[in-house]
Amino acid sequence: MPVLKLLFVVGSRPQFPKVAAVARAIAKHNASGDATQIEHCLVHTGQHYDDSMNDVFFRELELRKPDFNLEVGSGSIGYQTGASIERIYDTLGTWVPDWVVVFGDTNATLAGGIAAQQRHLRLAHVEAGIRTGNLHQAEELNRVIVDRIADLRFSATAATLNNLWDENLSANSFFVGDTMLDNYMHFLPKREMGFAASIGLKPGHYIYSTIHRAENTDYPERLGAIIDTLIAVNNEMMPVVIPLHPRTRAAIERLGRTGELEEAGVKVIDPIGFNRSQSLVEDCYLVYSDSGGLLREACFSGHFCVIPWEYTTFPEINEVGMANCGRVVKDEMLKRLFDAPGPQDRESITNFGNGTAGEQIVAKFVELIG
Ligand code: UD1
Fold first, then answer.
1. H-run or E-run covering 161
2. Which of 125, 126, 159, 298 has CB 3.0 to 4.6 Å from 287, enough for a Cys bridge?
3. Is the pLDDT reported for residue 347 higher than 70?
4. Is 291 within 8 Å of 104 (Cβ atoms)?
């Protein structure tokens, strides 16, 4: 019986749902009794390691424990990427797959891609073709490089597939839909109900915010404008809840503004897992976030997302009237928040496929090995 071997490289929070969708599809494929059975190996660079940033996602997404944890931990981009390349390279000498699969646009994505090519192994990139056009941003640099060196690219939307065509990368690039939508649909019936109410928020009457992009946290003027906006909107519009990423917490401290959000009544909580985040997005009035993942979950669930950023990773969400982006200036962001529409129907969901991205990815690997 032919065995197809896939090795997945992950490292940080946004990658866990993506790999979970593909792992579920593998389990389904193997259970179908298909002649080609799939073995997989999960390699975790260890970039994220806290319970709230890591373990909770493994539990809730029903992900198996990593086969290799490379324990890279925190540090500069140079350190994280370099150490990850070295350790992934070594791991690829131990467990040799037919394909190395990387996800999204983090340090683990770039490191996995480079190590795979250095080992002369075939490389596949899930969530290919996202472009903001700003190469000074770490994630953009990572995805441009990985798309260029990948042997197989899977796009979440038609527009991101078009970006690949524009770069002459049409060969071996496929639109499969978004693994985030797979998860959204899979876990919707199981999501934790009533988390908002349990922390004193009225469903339908709060803003769900997350801020973690280095472009926002690492520039005092921008972070200051975001803090001022959060306080103003909480006072003048409706309550705001913000699970605080450790990077953002540290940046607020450096700015000397620790405790200001809490004193102003903004509900600041520790980072939350997948289920609670799904619950908060489902019950909110709107989302104010610089996260590309939450932007999509907001769209799937019919909630508008005000993006505190000049760029967006998915302009197609803006085009269907479910998000806007713009300058990180208090008055402009406040206006966008006040003018944003409340919860809507979920029509725009179709841009991201039909919730079978994981299955289509697995089917493509099986077809290619055949
Ligand atoms: C990384 C990704 C980003 C992704 C984000 C999701 C890159 C370049 N960036 O950024 O694309 O959107 O993850 O969160 O790969 N920390 C903890 N506990 C942890 C992990 C980190 O406290 O488990 C703290 C450390 O102080 C660390 C800081 O958070 O220095 C930033 O973490 P890091 O992994 O470097 O980058 P993220 O901002 O999380």
1. helix 158-166
2. 298
3. no
4. no
Residues 158 and 195 in one domain: no
* CB contact at 8 A, 345 and 171: no
**Which residues have any ligand 1 atom within 6 Å of their CB?**
12-14, 47-50, 53-54, 74, 77, 106-107, 138-139, 212, 245-247
This prediction has a pTM of: 0.97
Q: If pLDDT is split at 50, 70 and 90, which confidence band does 254 have?
A: very high
Looking from the CA of residue 291, the nearest atom of ligand 1 is 12
Q: Which domain holds residue 303?
A: 190-351
Task: Indicate whether 359 and 236 sit together in one domain.
Answer: no
Look up the CATH number of the domain holding residue 241.
Answer: 3.40.50.2000
Residue 120 pLDDT greater than 90, yes or no: yes
Nearest to 44 by CA among 94, 7, 5: 7
Q: Which residue, judged by its Cα, is nearest atom 11 of ligand 1?
A: 106
User: 3-class secondary structure for 280-296?
Assistant: HHHHCCEEEECCHHHHH
- Residue 1: per-residue pLDDT: 75
**Which ligand 1 atom sits closest to the C-alpha of 109?**
15
Identify the residue whose C-alpha is closest to ligand 1 atom 31.
247
Instruction: Please give the backbone phi and psi of residue 329, each rounded to the nearest 5 degrees, phi first.
Output: -130, 130
Could you give the number of structural domains in the chain?
A: 2
* Residue nearest (by alpha carbon) to ligand 1 atom 38: 247
Q: How confident is the model at residue 348 (pLDDT cuts 50, 70, 90)?
A: low
Query: Would residue 214 count as lying in a domain?
Result: yes
183 within a domain of the structure (yes/no): no
Does 206 reside within a domain? yes
